[in-house]
Amino acid sequence: MANKKIAILSGKGGTGKTLVSVNLAAAEGNSYYVDCDVEEPNGHLFFKPKIIKKKDIFVKIPNIDNSLCSGCRECVEFCKFNALAYGRQVIVFEEVCHSCGGCMLVCPTKAISEKDKKIGVIEEGVSDEVKTISGIMNTGEVSGVPIIKELLNIIKDVEGLVFIDCPPGSACVVMESVKDADYCILVAEPTVFGAHNLAMVHRLVSLFGKKCGVVLNKCETGFNPSEDFCIKNNIEILARVPFDNDLGSLNSEGKIAVRENYKNKDLFYSLLSTVKEAVK
Amino acid sequence: MKQLLIISGKGGTGKTTIAGAFIKLLQAKAYADCDVDAPNLHLISNHTVTEERKDYFGLPKAHIDINLCIECGLCEESCGFNAVHHGQRYYIDSYACEGCGVCKYVCPTGAISLREQRAGELMLYRNNAVFSTAQLEMGNGTSGMLVSEVKKQMKESAADDVGVAIIDGSPGIGCPVIASLSGVDLALIVAEPSISGINDMQRIIETARQFGTKLAVCVNKYDTNLKNTQTIEEFCKDSEIIFVGKIPYDKKAVTAINDGKSIVDIDCPAGIAVKKVFDNTIKIIGKL
Predict the structure, then answer these.
(1) Which of B173, B194, B228 minimises the CB distance to A39?
(2) Are residues B90 and B156 in the same domain?
(3) B131 and B262 in one domain?
(4) Which residues from A are below 8 Å from B194, CB to CB?
Protein backbone atom coordinates (compact mmCIF):
# COMPACT_ATOMS: atom_id res chain seq x y z
CA MET A 1 0.00 0.00 0.00
CA ALA A 2 1.20 3.43 -0.92
CA ASN A 3 0.08 5.11 2.25
CA LYS A 4 -0.95 4.57 5.84
CA LYS A 5 -3.99 6.41 7.10
CA ILE A 6 -4.23 7.28 10.75
CA ALA A 7 -7.56 8.62 11.96
CA ILE A 8 -7.69 10.74 15.10
CA LEU A 9 -11.07 10.76 16.81
CA SER A 10 -12.64 11.21 20.22
CA GLY A 11 -16.40 11.00 20.59
CA LYS A 12 -16.44 14.03 22.84
CA GLY A 13 -15.49 17.38 21.36
CA GLY A 14 -12.58 19.45 22.57
CA THR A 15 -10.44 16.59 23.87
CA GLY A 16 -7.47 17.47 21.68
CA LYS A 17 -7.99 15.73 18.32
CA THR A 18 -6.60 18.66 16.38
CA LEU A 19 -3.72 19.12 18.84
CA VAL A 20 -2.65 15.49 18.36
CA SER A 21 -3.24 15.40 14.57
CA VAL A 22 -1.44 18.63 13.84
CA ASN A 23 1.57 17.79 16.01
CA LEU A 24 1.91 14.28 14.60
CA ALA A 25 1.82 15.54 11.01
CA ALA A 26 4.31 18.30 11.83
CA ALA A 27 6.58 15.83 13.66
CA GLU A 28 6.56 13.48 10.68
CA GLY A 29 7.30 16.35 8.29
CA ASN A 30 6.65 15.05 4.81
CA SER A 31 3.06 13.86 5.40
CA TYR A 32 -0.58 14.71 4.86
CA TYR A 33 -2.89 16.41 7.33
CA VAL A 34 -6.56 16.04 6.38
CA ASP A 35 -9.24 17.99 8.25
CA CYS A 36 -12.50 16.02 8.09
CA ASP A 37 -14.17 18.14 10.78
CA VAL A 38 -15.80 20.09 7.99
CA GLU A 39 -18.34 21.80 10.26
CA GLU A 40 -15.65 23.35 12.44
CA PRO A 41 -12.29 22.84 10.71
CA ASN A 42 -9.41 24.23 12.74
CA GLY A 43 -6.24 22.57 11.47
CA HIS A 44 -5.57 25.39 9.00
CA LEU A 45 -5.47 27.85 11.91
CA PHE A 46 -2.39 25.99 13.16
CA PHE A 47 -0.66 25.18 9.88
CA LYS A 48 -1.49 28.53 8.23
CA PRO A 49 -0.81 26.78 4.93
CA LYS A 50 -0.01 28.42 1.65
CA ILE A 51 -3.10 27.48 -0.38
CA ILE A 52 -2.22 25.94 -3.70
CA LYS A 53 -5.56 24.57 -4.83
CA LYS A 54 -9.21 25.25 -4.09
CA LYS A 55 -12.07 23.08 -5.15
CA ASP A 56 -15.73 23.91 -4.69
CA ILE A 57 -17.93 21.01 -3.60
CA PHE A 58 -21.36 20.69 -5.11
CA VAL A 59 -24.37 18.47 -4.56
CA LYS A 60 -27.24 17.91 -6.96
CA ILE A 61 -30.60 19.42 -6.14
CA PRO A 62 -33.80 19.35 -8.18
CA ASN A 63 -34.56 22.08 -10.66
CA ILE A 64 -38.27 22.28 -11.49
CA ASP A 65 -39.47 23.41 -14.90
CA ASN A 66 -42.89 24.79 -14.02
CA SER A 67 -43.97 24.91 -17.65
CA LEU A 68 -43.73 21.11 -17.78
CA CYS A 69 -45.08 20.37 -14.27
CA SER A 70 -48.60 18.92 -14.39
CA GLY A 71 -49.12 19.33 -10.65
CA CYS A 72 -49.46 15.58 -10.05
CA ARG A 73 -47.35 15.75 -6.86
CA GLU A 74 -45.72 12.37 -7.37
CA CYS A 75 -42.35 13.90 -6.52
CA VAL A 76 -43.72 15.29 -3.25
CA GLU A 77 -45.15 11.87 -2.39
CA PHE A 78 -41.91 10.11 -3.23
CA CYS A 79 -39.47 12.32 -1.31
CA LYS A 80 -38.66 10.62 2.00
CA PHE A 81 -36.84 13.67 3.28
CA ASN A 82 -39.75 16.09 2.95
CA ALA A 83 -37.64 18.27 0.72
CA LEU A 84 -40.53 18.97 -1.65
CA ALA A 85 -43.93 20.50 -1.05
CA TYR A 86 -46.70 21.69 -3.30
CA GLY A 87 -48.23 25.13 -3.00
CA ARG A 88 -49.29 26.68 -6.27
CA GLN A 89 -46.22 24.95 -7.68
CA VAL A 90 -43.52 22.57 -6.42
CA ILE A 91 -41.38 24.12 -3.70
CA VAL A 92 -37.89 22.72 -3.03
CA PHE A 93 -36.36 22.90 0.45
CA GLU A 94 -32.77 22.72 -0.71
CA GLU A 95 -31.16 22.30 2.70
CA VAL A 96 -32.96 19.03 3.49
CA CYS A 97 -32.54 17.50 0.03
CA HIS A 98 -30.34 14.38 0.12
CA SER A 99 -29.66 14.45 -3.63
CA CYS A 100 -31.08 10.96 -4.20
CA GLY A 101 -32.56 11.92 -7.57
CA GLY A 102 -35.85 10.16 -6.81
CA CYS A 103 -38.05 13.13 -7.69
CA MET A 104 -36.49 13.35 -11.12
CA LEU A 105 -37.01 9.64 -11.63
CA VAL A 106 -40.71 9.61 -10.74
CA CYS A 107 -41.78 12.77 -12.57
CA PRO A 108 -44.06 11.63 -15.41
CA THR A 109 -43.62 14.82 -17.44
CA LYS A 110 -39.83 15.13 -17.07
CA ALA A 111 -40.25 18.51 -15.44
CA ILE A 112 -37.41 17.89 -13.01
CA SER A 113 -33.73 18.12 -13.82
CA GLU A 114 -30.74 18.47 -11.51
CA LYS A 115 -28.66 21.50 -10.79
CA ASP A 116 -25.51 22.02 -8.74
CA LYS A 117 -25.55 23.62 -5.36
CA LYS A 118 -22.31 24.59 -3.66
CA ILE A 119 -22.07 23.29 -0.09
CA GLY A 120 -18.46 24.03 0.69
CA VAL A 121 -14.87 24.04 -0.43
CA ILE A 122 -11.73 21.92 -0.15
CA GLU A 123 -8.47 23.79 0.23
CA GLU A 124 -5.15 22.09 -0.41
CA GLY A 125 -2.04 23.77 0.86
CA VAL A 126 1.47 23.36 2.19
CA SER A 127 2.98 24.25 5.52
CA ASP A 128 6.70 23.51 5.64
CA GLU A 129 6.82 19.92 4.46
CA VAL A 130 3.27 19.07 5.50
CA LYS A 131 0.59 18.94 2.84
CA THR A 132 -2.71 20.10 4.28
CA ILE A 133 -6.16 19.34 2.93
CA SER A 134 -9.13 20.98 4.67
CA GLY A 135 -12.82 20.61 4.01
CA ILE A 136 -14.93 23.62 4.93
CA MET A 137 -18.72 23.31 4.90
CA ASN A 138 -20.78 26.42 4.26
CA THR A 139 -22.70 27.62 7.31
CA GLY A 140 -26.40 26.76 7.17
CA GLU A 141 -25.75 23.44 5.41
CA VAL A 142 -27.02 20.28 7.08
CA SER A 143 -24.51 17.64 6.01
CA GLY A 144 -20.81 17.70 5.28
CA VAL A 145 -20.69 14.05 4.19
CA PRO A 146 -20.16 14.82 0.46
CA ILE A 147 -17.17 17.00 1.39
CA ILE A 148 -15.69 14.25 3.56
CA LYS A 149 -16.16 11.72 0.77
CA GLU A 150 -14.25 13.97 -1.60
CA LEU A 151 -11.48 14.55 0.98
CA LEU A 152 -11.01 10.79 1.32
CA ASN A 153 -11.05 10.44 -2.43
CA ILE A 154 -8.21 12.96 -2.77
CA ILE A 155 -5.97 11.08 -0.33
CA LYS A 156 -6.82 7.62 -1.58
CA ASP A 157 -3.62 7.05 -3.48
CA VAL A 158 -1.15 9.54 -2.03
CA GLU A 159 2.22 8.41 -0.70
CA GLY A 160 3.26 8.37 2.94
CA LEU A 161 1.54 8.96 6.25
CA VAL A 162 -1.90 10.55 6.26
CA PHE A 163 -3.31 12.00 9.48
CA ILE A 164 -7.10 12.34 9.43
CA ASP A 165 -8.55 14.81 11.93
CA CYS A 166 -12.13 13.57 12.48
CA PRO A 167 -15.29 15.36 13.62
CA PRO A 168 -16.58 14.73 17.16
CA GLY A 169 -19.38 12.30 17.92
CA SER A 170 -20.06 8.86 16.49
CA ALA A 171 -22.55 9.64 13.73
CA CYS A 172 -22.32 9.15 9.97
CA VAL A 173 -19.66 11.84 9.47
CA VAL A 174 -17.30 10.09 11.88
CA MET A 175 -17.93 6.71 10.33
CA GLU A 176 -17.16 8.10 6.87
CA SER A 177 -13.91 9.56 8.18
CA VAL A 178 -12.58 6.35 9.77
CA LYS A 179 -13.79 3.91 7.13
CA ASP A 180 -10.49 3.79 5.21
CA ALA A 181 -8.18 4.19 8.21
CA ASP A 182 -5.37 1.73 8.92
CA TYR A 183 -5.17 2.82 12.54
CA CYS A 184 -7.28 4.92 14.91
CA ILE A 185 -6.01 7.15 17.69
CA LEU A 186 -8.68 7.86 20.29
CA VAL A 187 -8.06 11.04 22.25
CA ALA A 188 -9.69 11.20 25.68
CA GLU A 189 -9.78 13.66 28.55
CA PRO A 190 -9.77 12.68 32.21
CA THR A 191 -13.43 13.21 33.05
CA VAL A 192 -16.45 10.93 33.29
CA PHE A 193 -17.72 12.71 30.15
CA GLY A 194 -14.46 11.85 28.42
CA ALA A 195 -14.59 8.21 29.51
CA HIS A 196 -18.24 7.83 28.51
CA ASN A 197 -17.58 9.14 25.00
CA LEU A 198 -14.33 7.18 24.73
CA ALA A 199 -16.27 3.99 25.37
CA MET A 200 -18.69 4.97 22.62
CA VAL A 201 -16.08 5.73 20.01
CA HIS A 202 -14.12 2.62 20.98
CA ARG A 203 -17.23 0.58 20.19
CA LEU A 204 -17.40 2.31 16.81
CA VAL A 205 -13.82 1.50 15.79
CA SER A 206 -14.17 -2.04 17.15
CA LEU A 207 -17.28 -2.49 15.05
CA PHE A 208 -15.20 -1.70 11.98
CA GLY A 209 -12.39 -3.96 13.17
CA LYS A 210 -9.90 -1.10 13.31
CA LYS A 211 -6.67 -1.28 15.29
CA CYS A 212 -6.59 1.49 17.85
CA GLY A 213 -4.88 3.02 20.83
CA VAL A 214 -5.65 5.86 23.22
CA VAL A 215 -3.96 9.18 23.92
CA LEU A 216 -4.88 10.43 27.35
CA ASN A 217 -4.90 14.23 27.17
CA LYS A 218 -4.94 16.88 29.90
CA CYS A 219 -3.72 14.32 32.46
CA GLU A 220 -3.43 15.47 36.04
CA THR A 221 -2.73 13.66 39.26
CA GLY A 222 -5.79 11.98 40.66
CA PHE A 223 -8.33 9.58 39.26
CA ASN A 224 -8.62 9.44 35.46
CA PRO A 225 -11.86 7.73 34.38
CA SER A 226 -10.57 7.37 30.80
CA GLU A 227 -7.38 5.67 31.93
CA ASP A 228 -9.46 3.38 34.10
CA PHE A 229 -11.58 2.46 31.06
CA CYS A 230 -8.47 1.61 29.01
CA ILE A 231 -7.00 -0.58 31.73
CA LYS A 232 -10.25 -2.43 32.36
CA ASN A 233 -10.77 -3.06 28.65
CA ASN A 234 -7.18 -3.81 27.86
CA ILE A 235 -6.80 -0.96 25.36
CA GLU A 236 -3.29 0.26 24.64
CA ILE A 237 -2.42 3.68 26.03
CA LEU A 238 -0.18 5.29 23.43
CA ALA A 239 0.70 8.44 25.32
CA ARG A 240 -0.18 10.56 28.30
CA VAL A 241 -0.20 14.29 27.56
CA PRO A 242 -0.02 16.18 30.86
CA PHE A 243 -2.24 19.14 31.64
CA ASP A 244 0.17 21.94 30.99
CA ASN A 245 -0.36 25.69 30.84
CA ASP A 246 2.48 26.10 28.34
CA LEU A 247 0.93 23.64 25.91
CA GLY A 248 -2.50 25.18 26.53
CA SER A 249 -1.19 28.66 25.69
CA LEU A 250 0.56 27.50 22.53
CA ASN A 251 -2.59 25.71 21.44
CA SER A 252 -4.87 28.66 22.18
CA GLU A 253 -2.59 30.87 20.06
CA GLY A 254 -2.80 28.42 17.15
CA LYS A 255 0.85 27.37 17.46
CA ILE A 256 2.19 23.90 16.77
CA ALA A 257 4.08 22.59 19.81
CA VAL A 258 6.65 20.52 17.90
CA ARG A 259 7.57 23.55 15.81
CA GLU A 260 8.04 25.70 18.91
CA ASN A 261 10.46 25.58 21.76
CA TYR A 262 8.12 23.44 23.83
CA LYS A 263 9.68 21.48 26.67
CA ASN A 264 7.65 18.31 26.20
CA LYS A 265 7.70 18.03 22.43
CA ASP A 266 9.49 14.66 22.63
CA LEU A 267 6.16 13.31 23.71
CA PHE A 268 4.74 13.81 20.20
CA TYR A 269 7.81 12.32 18.52
CA SER A 270 7.59 9.25 20.68
CA LEU A 271 3.83 8.97 20.01
CA LEU A 272 4.64 9.20 16.31
CA SER A 273 7.11 6.31 16.45
CA THR A 274 4.65 4.21 18.46
CA VAL A 275 1.96 4.80 15.85
CA LYS A 276 4.34 4.16 12.95
CA GLU A 277 5.31 0.88 14.54
CA ALA A 278 1.62 -0.02 14.85
CA VAL A 279 0.88 0.54 11.15
CA LYS A 280 4.05 -1.11 9.85
CA MET B 1 -42.49 27.34 28.01
CA LYS B 2 -39.44 29.28 26.94
CA GLN B 3 -36.45 27.34 25.66
CA LEU B 4 -32.82 28.15 26.29
CA LEU B 5 -30.34 26.25 24.10
CA ILE B 6 -26.67 25.97 25.04
CA ILE B 7 -24.32 25.53 22.06
CA SER B 8 -20.71 26.23 21.18
CA GLY B 9 -19.61 25.31 17.67
CA LYS B 10 -16.36 23.89 19.01
CA GLY B 11 -16.60 20.81 21.21
CA GLY B 12 -15.42 20.65 24.79
CA THR B 13 -15.90 24.30 25.67
CA GLY B 14 -18.14 23.44 28.63
CA LYS B 15 -21.71 23.26 27.27
CA THR B 16 -22.78 20.38 29.48
CA THR B 17 -21.00 21.72 32.56
CA ILE B 18 -22.81 25.04 32.15
CA ALA B 19 -26.12 23.38 31.30
CA GLY B 20 -25.80 21.30 34.48
CA ALA B 21 -25.19 24.44 36.53
CA PHE B 22 -28.13 26.29 34.94
CA ILE B 23 -30.48 23.37 35.60
CA LYS B 24 -29.47 23.42 39.25
CA LEU B 25 -29.69 27.21 39.66
CA LEU B 26 -33.04 27.42 37.92
CA GLN B 27 -34.39 24.29 39.59
CA ALA B 28 -35.43 23.55 36.02
CA LYS B 29 -38.61 21.57 35.61
CA ALA B 30 -37.83 20.55 32.06
CA TYR B 31 -34.52 19.95 30.35
CA ALA B 32 -33.06 17.98 27.48
CA ASP B 33 -29.78 16.72 26.07
CA CYS B 34 -29.77 17.18 22.30
CA ASP B 35 -26.20 15.95 21.83
CA VAL B 36 -27.59 12.62 20.65
CA ASP B 37 -24.22 11.50 19.20
CA ALA B 38 -22.45 11.83 22.52
CA PRO B 39 -24.91 12.56 25.34
CA ASN B 40 -23.41 13.33 28.73
CA LEU B 41 -25.90 15.39 30.70
CA HIS B 42 -27.39 12.27 32.32
CA LEU B 43 -24.03 11.67 33.99
CA ILE B 44 -24.54 14.69 36.25
CA SER B 45 -28.33 14.95 36.36
CA ASN B 46 -28.80 12.75 39.47
CA HIS B 47 -32.21 11.43 38.63
CA THR B 48 -33.37 8.85 41.12
CA VAL B 49 -36.15 7.45 38.97
CA THR B 50 -35.71 4.75 36.35
CA GLU B 51 -35.93 6.19 32.86
CA GLU B 52 -38.64 5.30 30.39
CA ARG B 53 -37.04 3.95 27.23
CA LYS B 54 -38.39 4.02 23.72
CA ASP B 55 -36.83 2.77 20.49
CA TYR B 56 -36.17 5.40 17.87
CA PHE B 57 -36.57 4.48 14.23
CA GLY B 58 -35.03 6.71 11.64
CA LEU B 59 -36.00 6.35 8.03
CA PRO B 60 -36.74 2.78 6.92
CA LYS B 61 -33.85 1.26 4.99
CA ALA B 62 -33.75 -0.83 1.85
CA HIS B 63 -33.70 -4.60 1.97
CA ILE B 64 -33.29 -6.98 -0.98
CA ASP B 65 -35.23 -10.24 -1.09
CA ILE B 66 -32.72 -12.44 -2.91
CA ASN B 67 -35.44 -14.91 -3.87
CA LEU B 68 -37.01 -12.22 -6.06
CA CYS B 69 -33.79 -10.56 -7.23
CA ILE B 70 -32.90 -11.26 -10.86
CA GLU B 71 -29.47 -9.62 -10.60
CA CYS B 72 -30.24 -6.90 -13.13
CA GLY B 73 -28.12 -4.37 -11.22
CA LEU B 74 -30.51 -1.44 -11.73
CA CYS B 75 -30.57 -0.78 -7.98
CA GLU B 76 -26.79 -0.53 -7.80
CA GLU B 77 -26.75 1.78 -10.80
CA SER B 78 -29.39 4.15 -9.42
CA CYS B 79 -28.22 4.36 -5.81
CA GLY B 80 -26.74 7.76 -5.11
CA PHE B 81 -25.19 6.66 -1.83
CA ASN B 82 -23.12 3.70 -2.97
CA ALA B 83 -25.18 1.52 -0.63
CA VAL B 84 -25.87 -1.40 -2.98
CA HIS B 85 -23.07 -3.93 -3.26
CA HIS B 86 -22.61 -7.26 -4.89
CA GLY B 87 -21.02 -10.11 -3.01
CA GLN B 88 -22.35 -13.50 -3.92
CA ARG B 89 -25.67 -11.71 -4.39
CA TYR B 90 -26.78 -8.09 -4.21
CA TYR B 91 -27.06 -6.66 -0.70
CA ILE B 92 -27.58 -3.28 1.00
CA ASP B 93 -24.98 -1.63 3.20
CA SER B 94 -27.39 -0.31 5.80
CA TYR B 95 -24.87 2.24 7.12
CA ALA B 96 -24.61 3.82 3.69
CA CYS B 97 -28.34 3.52 2.87
CA GLU B 98 -30.24 6.75 3.51
CA GLY B 99 -33.66 5.23 2.87
CA CYS B 100 -34.49 7.33 -0.20
CA GLY B 101 -36.41 4.48 -1.89
CA VAL B 102 -34.92 4.94 -5.35
CA CYS B 103 -33.74 1.29 -5.54
CA LYS B 104 -37.20 0.08 -4.58
CA TYR B 105 -38.69 2.26 -7.29
CA VAL B 106 -36.41 1.01 -10.06
CA CYS B 107 -36.48 -2.69 -9.12
CA PRO B 108 -38.45 -4.48 -11.85
CA THR B 109 -39.36 -7.50 -9.70
CA GLY B 110 -40.41 -5.85 -6.47
CA ALA B 111 -37.50 -7.51 -4.65
CA ILE B 112 -36.69 -4.41 -2.62
CA SER B 113 -38.66 -3.20 0.37
CA LEU B 114 -38.01 -0.47 2.90
CA ARG B 115 -37.83 -1.84 6.41
CA GLU B 116 -37.92 -0.09 9.74
CA GLN B 117 -34.61 -0.17 11.48
CA ARG B 118 -33.82 0.87 15.03
CA ALA B 119 -31.60 3.92 14.85
CA GLY B 120 -31.35 4.82 18.51
CA GLU B 121 -33.17 5.13 21.76
CA LEU B 122 -35.06 7.90 23.52
CA MET B 123 -34.94 8.15 27.31
CA LEU B 124 -37.26 10.10 29.57
CA TYR B 125 -36.73 10.69 33.28
CA ARG B 126 -39.84 11.90 35.00
CA ASN B 127 -40.31 12.95 38.63
CA ASN B 128 -40.57 16.56 39.83
CA ALA B 129 -38.74 17.50 36.64
CA VAL B 130 -38.68 15.95 33.18
CA PHE B 131 -35.40 15.19 31.50
CA SER B 132 -35.45 14.08 27.88
CA THR B 133 -32.39 12.53 26.28
CA ALA B 134 -31.42 10.01 23.61
CA GLN B 135 -28.60 7.98 22.18
CA LEU B 136 -28.19 7.62 18.44
CA GLU B 137 -26.88 4.30 17.23
CA MET B 138 -23.33 4.44 16.00
CA GLY B 139 -22.73 5.56 12.48
CA ASN B 140 -26.29 6.70 11.98
CA GLY B 141 -27.17 9.63 9.81
CA THR B 142 -30.48 10.80 11.22
CA SER B 143 -29.32 12.78 14.24
CA GLY B 144 -31.41 15.82 13.29
CA MET B 145 -34.63 13.82 13.37
CA LEU B 146 -33.72 12.34 16.76
CA VAL B 147 -32.94 15.80 18.14
CA SER B 148 -36.43 16.91 17.12
CA GLU B 149 -37.86 13.84 18.89
CA VAL B 150 -35.93 14.65 22.08
CA LYS B 151 -37.33 18.18 22.13
CA LYS B 152 -40.83 16.95 21.33
CA GLN B 153 -40.66 14.41 24.14
CA MET B 154 -39.60 17.12 26.57
CA LYS B 155 -42.39 19.49 25.53
CA GLU B 156 -45.08 16.84 25.65
CA SER B 157 -44.09 15.55 29.08
CA ALA B 158 -43.44 18.87 30.78
CA ALA B 159 -45.95 20.53 33.08
CA ASP B 160 -47.62 23.79 32.02
CA ASP B 161 -45.76 25.94 34.54
CA VAL B 162 -42.23 25.13 33.39
CA GLY B 163 -41.09 28.68 32.71
CA VAL B 164 -37.70 28.12 31.10
CA ALA B 165 -36.50 24.78 29.74
CA ILE B 166 -32.75 24.16 29.38
CA ILE B 167 -31.45 22.34 26.31
CA ASP B 168 -27.88 21.09 26.02
CA GLY B 169 -26.83 21.15 22.37
CA SER B 170 -24.19 19.38 20.33
CA PRO B 171 -20.93 20.62 18.83
CA GLY B 172 -20.60 21.61 15.18
CA ILE B 173 -22.94 23.58 12.94
CA GLY B 174 -24.66 20.81 10.96
CA CYS B 175 -27.78 18.72 11.08
CA PRO B 176 -28.25 18.11 14.86
CA VAL B 177 -27.37 21.72 15.69
CA ILE B 178 -29.79 23.13 13.14
CA ALA B 179 -32.51 20.83 14.50
CA SER B 180 -31.68 22.03 18.03
CA LEU B 181 -31.97 25.69 17.02
CA SER B 182 -35.47 25.31 15.72
CA GLY B 183 -38.03 26.94 17.98
CA VAL B 184 -35.72 28.01 20.81
CA ASP B 185 -36.12 31.47 22.33
CA LEU B 186 -32.46 32.09 23.07
CA ALA B 187 -29.20 30.31 22.30
CA LEU B 188 -26.33 30.81 24.72
CA ILE B 189 -23.00 30.25 23.00
CA VAL B 190 -20.20 28.97 25.23
CA ALA B 191 -16.99 30.23 23.66
CA GLU B 192 -13.42 29.32 24.48
CA PRO B 193 -10.59 31.87 24.22
CA SER B 194 -8.45 30.03 21.71
CA ILE B 195 -7.88 30.68 18.02
CA SER B 196 -9.98 27.59 17.27
CA GLY B 197 -12.65 28.62 19.76
CA ILE B 198 -13.03 32.06 18.20
CA ASN B 199 -13.22 30.67 14.67
CA ASP B 200 -15.84 28.09 15.67
CA MET B 201 -17.86 30.66 17.62
CA GLN B 202 -18.03 32.87 14.56
CA ARG B 203 -19.26 29.95 12.44
CA ILE B 204 -22.00 28.97 14.90
CA ILE B 205 -23.09 32.62 15.16
CA GLU B 206 -23.30 32.83 11.37
CA THR B 207 -25.32 29.59 11.31
CA ALA B 208 -27.72 30.60 14.08
CA ARG B 209 -28.31 33.99 12.47
CA GLN B 210 -29.44 32.31 9.26
CA PHE B 211 -32.20 30.72 11.31
CA GLY B 212 -33.03 33.96 13.10
CA THR B 213 -32.16 32.70 16.58
CA LYS B 214 -31.55 35.28 19.30
CA LEU B 215 -28.04 34.91 20.74
CA ALA B 216 -25.96 35.55 23.83
CA VAL B 217 -22.28 34.68 24.39
CA CYS B 218 -20.24 33.73 27.45
CA VAL B 219 -16.57 32.74 27.64
CA ASN B 220 -15.48 29.68 29.58
CA LYS B 221 -11.92 29.22 30.89
CA TYR B 222 -11.50 32.94 30.10
CA ASP B 223 -8.26 33.30 32.06
CA THR B 224 -6.42 30.74 29.90
CA ASN B 225 -5.97 33.46 27.29
CA LEU B 226 -6.97 36.98 28.30
CA LYS B 227 -6.11 38.47 24.92
CA ASN B 228 -8.41 36.11 23.07
CA THR B 229 -11.14 36.67 25.68
CA GLN B 230 -10.92 40.37 24.92
CA THR B 231 -11.15 39.62 21.20
CA ILE B 232 -14.37 37.67 21.82
CA GLU B 233 -15.86 40.49 23.92
CA GLU B 234 -15.01 43.02 21.22
CA PHE B 235 -16.41 40.78 18.50
CA CYS B 236 -19.70 40.51 20.40
CA LYS B 237 -19.85 44.25 20.85
CA ASP B 238 -19.22 44.87 17.15
CA SER B 239 -21.76 42.23 16.12
CA GLU B 240 -24.35 43.47 18.63
CA ILE B 241 -24.53 40.16 20.48
CA ILE B 242 -25.15 40.32 24.20
CA PHE B 243 -22.14 39.25 26.25
CA VAL B 244 -23.33 37.63 29.47
CA GLY B 245 -20.06 37.01 31.27
CA LYS B 246 -16.96 34.91 31.72
CA ILE B 247 -16.04 31.90 33.78
CA PRO B 248 -12.47 31.12 34.93
CA TYR B 249 -10.62 27.85 34.40
CA ASP B 250 -11.14 25.90 37.60
CA LYS B 251 -9.59 22.55 38.47
CA LYS B 252 -12.41 21.95 40.91
CA ALA B 253 -14.84 21.87 38.01
CA VAL B 254 -13.25 18.61 36.82
CA THR B 255 -13.50 17.14 40.33
CA ALA B 256 -17.16 18.12 40.57
CA ILE B 257 -18.01 16.54 37.21
CA ASN B 258 -16.16 13.34 38.10
CA ASP B 259 -18.20 13.14 41.30
CA GLY B 260 -21.38 13.46 39.24
CA LYS B 261 -22.03 16.97 40.57
CA SER B 262 -22.68 20.34 39.04
CA ILE B 263 -20.13 23.15 39.58
CA VAL B 264 -22.68 25.07 41.62
CA ASP B 265 -22.95 22.16 44.07
CA ILE B 266 -19.46 22.87 45.35
CA ASP B 267 -17.75 26.05 46.49
CA CYS B 268 -15.50 27.10 43.61
CA PRO B 269 -14.65 30.20 41.53
CA ALA B 270 -16.21 28.74 38.38
CA GLY B 271 -19.44 28.10 40.29
CA ILE B 272 -19.59 31.71 41.49
CA ALA B 273 -18.91 33.05 37.99
CA VAL B 274 -21.48 30.81 36.31
CA LYS B 275 -24.11 32.18 38.70
CA LYS B 276 -23.58 35.67 37.23
CA VAL B 277 -23.77 34.32 33.69
CA PHE B 278 -26.97 32.55 34.67
CA ASP B 279 -28.56 35.68 36.18
CA ASN B 280 -27.74 37.72 33.08
CA THR B 281 -29.06 35.04 30.73
CA ILE B 282 -32.31 34.55 32.62
CA LYS B 283 -32.85 38.30 32.66
CA ILE B 284 -32.63 38.36 28.86
CA ILE B 285 -34.91 35.41 28.31
CA GLY B 286 -37.38 36.89 30.81
CA LYS B 287 -37.70 40.00 28.67
CA LEU B 288 -38.37 38.06 25.47
Answers:
(1) B173
(2) no
(3) yes
(4) 251-254
Picking from B115, B150, B182, the residue at the C-terminal end of a domain is: B115
* CATH number, domain with residue A137: 3.40.50.300
| Domain assignment of residue A101, given as a range | 66-110
- List the pLDDT tens digit at each of the 288 positions of chain B: 999 999 999 999 999 999 999 999 999 999 999 999 999 999 988 888 999 999 999 889 999 999 999 999 999 999 999 999 999 999 999 888 999 999 999 999 999 999 999 999 999 999 889 999 999 988 777 789 999 999 999 999 999 889 999 999 999 999 999 999 999 999 999 999 999 999 999 999 999 999 999 999 999 999 999 999 999 999 999 999 999 999 999 999 989 999 989 999 999 999 999 999 999 999 999 998
Best A252, A253, A256 member to test B by mutation, with max B CBs in 10 Å, is: A252
pTM of the model: 0.93
Mutate to test the interface with B, among A172, A205, A208, A250 (most CBs of B within 10 A): A172
A213 within some domain: yes
At which of B90, B115, B140 does a domain end? B115
Beta carbons of B195 and B51 less than 8 angstroms apart: no
Provide the CATH number for the domain around residue B84.
3.30.70.20
Q: Which residue does chain B place closest to A48, by CA atoms?
A: B195
Query: What ipTM was estimated for this complex?
Result: 0.91
What is the b/e burial string over B140-171, where b = at least 16 CB atoms within 10 angstroms of the residue's CB? bbbbbbbbbbbbebbbeebeeebebbbbbbbb
Residue A152 sits in the same domain as residue A47: yes
Number of separate domains in chain B: 2
* Distance of residue A200 Cα from the nearest chain B Cα, in angstroms: 8
Long-range contacts of A228-232 (CB under 8 A, 24+ apart): A228/A195, A229/A188, A229/A195, A229/A198, A229/A199, A229/A202, A230/A198
